[in-house]
Amino acid sequence: MRYVLLYTLVERGVIVKMRLLPKKIFFTAGVGTHKENLESFEMALRDAGIEKYNLVAVSSILPPNCEIIVKDKGLNELRPGEIVFCVMSRHASNEPNRRVSASLGCAIPKNPNEFGYISEHHAFGETTESSGVYAEKLASSMYETWTASKPKETFNIATSEVVGEGGLWTTVVSAAVMVL
User: Fold this and answer.
1) How far apart are CA 136 and CA 130, in angstroms?
2) How far is residue 125's CA from residue 94's CA, in Å, rounded to a whole number?
3) Were both Cys, which of 77, 114, 119, 123 would link to 105 (CB 3.0–4.6 Å)?
4) Residue 67 DSSP symbol
5) Which residues contact residue 28 at a Cβ distance below 8 angstroms, ignoring those fewer than 6 apart?
6) Contact present, 65 and 86 (Cβ < 8 Å)
7) b/e for 93-129, b at 16 or more Cβ within 10 A?
8) Neighbours of 25 (CB within 10 A)
């Protein structure tokens, strides 16, 4: 199997090739509210437990042989300030009584040596359950159109929240956080 070489380091005449291929991944979600949009996003990241990291959004591939772990185990492997790759769905509003949702669906391949899919979905007016089901079906469809077969397993992580009467910014996030 071929992987794209991200960069090469030359140190003391020795060429060191590095591939940034995640070995583990965990899923999390959070909700935040604040009078400022950016701070509501920060609060959602805090609720999800991932506010301490420099998050870099990547596209929707579940890497081959990537172990899905629980959030607490994943967080223990990361350090504050670390650059961390993630697939993220995010949505926000300050319109009173408006429901916002964010979800990820995951399609796990039958063969662990192959890649799977992670889909991002966000919407207005959808419940946590309906947003999650939609994202899960989307991930399965993405996998099936690539492989012409059904995935071994699918699941989702989702969250939703209704903006309060006071019109504070409300942000929802769902993230698949990769551990190198």
Assistant:
1) 10
2) 14
3) 119
4) E
5) 48, 49, 50, 71, 157, 174, 175, 177
6) no
7) bbeeeebbbbbbbbbbbeeeeebbbbbbbbbeebebe
8) 21
On whether the CB atoms of residues 15 and 21 are closer than 8 A, the answer is no
What are the structural domains, with CATH classification, of the chain? 21-179 (3.50.20.10)
CA distances from 32 to 40, 89, 100, 110 (A): 5, 14, 11, 36
CA distances to 28, 126, 131 from 65, rounded to whole Å, are 20, 33, 27
SS3 158: strand
Best CA proximity match to 33, nearest among 180, 171, 166, 179: 171
160 bridge partner residues: 101
pLDDT of residue 9: 56
Q: Where are the alpha helices (DSSP H) in 19-151?
A: 37-48, 71-76, 128-147
| Residue environment code for 147-169, b if the CB has 16+ CB neighbours within 10 A, otherwise e | beeebeebebbbbbbebeeeebb
Pairing of strands 169-179, 83-93: antiparallel
Task: Give the model's pLDDT for residue 179.
Answer: 98
pLDDT along the chain (180 residues), means of 10: 47 70 97 98 98 97 98 98 98 98 98 98 98 98 97 98 97 98
CB 172 within 8 A of CB 161: yes
List helix spans (H) across 62-152.
71-76, 128-147
